[in-house]
Amino acid sequence: MTSIRRLRSLLPLLASLALCACHGSTKPTPPPAPLLPPPVVKLRIGLALGGGAAKGFAHIGVIKMLEANGIRPDVVSGTSAGSVVGALYASGMDPFQMQEQAFALDESRIRDVRLFSGGVVQGQKLQDYVNQLVKNRPLDKLELPFAVVSTQLETGQRTVFVRGNTGQAVRASSSIPGVFEPAEINGKHYVDGGVVSPVPVDAARELGADVVIAVDISTKASGSNPVGMVNIVGQSISIMGQKLGEQELARADIVIRPKVGQIGAADFEQKNQAILEGERAALAAMPAIKAKIAAIQAARQAAPAVVAH
């Protein structure tokens, strides 16, 4: 009986506690969401491949080392020999496939001499060879945006091809004066792009590159006398474009210079040495390339915060 009375006396207290539990409690405050780091800014990497005839095989070695270190260009530009390698790379070939093509290349497949026009190379074979390797796709249908730089003979103007026949554009860019016939496109004539843009940094920028890695394989005048018509003409073009080239190279973020000075413009048998020199030069430049990319990424990520203040 006493227990029942005690329970009845506790009922009002239990009821009030129940009301407090229903109406007076507050939900616990959730912890603040963790601050996430800002997303990493994706930069468009541009690769500008310069001219240099047989020295151009060095570009393959450079691309091998870039990809081996996780750097895959988003856009490519090429002048002369750089346009040949650039076309194959932009078409989707990896550097090992390009190296296989280089080793299998017979010079007769790209040289069609016309005896009745001063012994110069016509260039049609080079055009057909490139088109075969890129599966006859035009410039604007390749895997990567690609620009080919040439020189219009009538005006001396720098011309950048980003649409149309890939092999034809490469032929125009590679038409060394005195060695190749000028390439005719839509009634105009074009010669080697190295006359006006030895290393096409600006063309890579025009394709939207945030970072431009330039590969300079040009021959500097060293006091020695080049032997052979191709070498003489090649060095003459390098001398003509040297000042322009220096100004344009200054607009690159990184310049890679493979040591290919000992390789002649027509020394196709030294292609393996040129590829090795490209690998060595790119590997030596890798810390600077990664540091430059990181610095530009950091600056781009900080830019919105600066604007907000």
From TrEMBL:
Q: Which GO terms describe its molecular function?
A: hydrolase activity
- Its signal peptide is 1-21
* Tagged with keyword Hydrolase: yes
Which CDD domains does the record match to this protein?
Answer: Pat_PNPLA6_PNPLA7_NTE1_like (cd07205)
Looking at the record, the residues that make up the PNPLA domain are 47-205
Top-rank taxon, per record:
Bacteria
Check the record and name the PROSITE patterns matching this protein. Answer: PNPLA (PS51635), PROKAR_LIPOPROTEIN (PS51257)
Q: Which InterPro entries match?
A: Acyl_Trfase/lysoPLipase (IPR016035), NTE (IPR050301), PNPLA_dom (IPR002641)
Which positions does the motif DGA/G occupy? 192-194
**Motif window: GXSXG:** 78-82
Identify the catalytic residues. Answer: S80, D192
| A biological process term (GO) from this entry | lipid catabolic process
Keywords, ordered alphabetically: Hydrolase, Lipid degradation, Lipid metabolism, Signal
Q: Which residues form a coiled coil?
A: none
The record ties this protein, via PANTHER family, to: NEUROPATHY TARGET ESTERASE/SWISS CHEESE D.MELANOGASTER, NTE FAMILY PROTEIN RSSA
Protein name, please?
Answer: Patatin-like phospholipase family protein
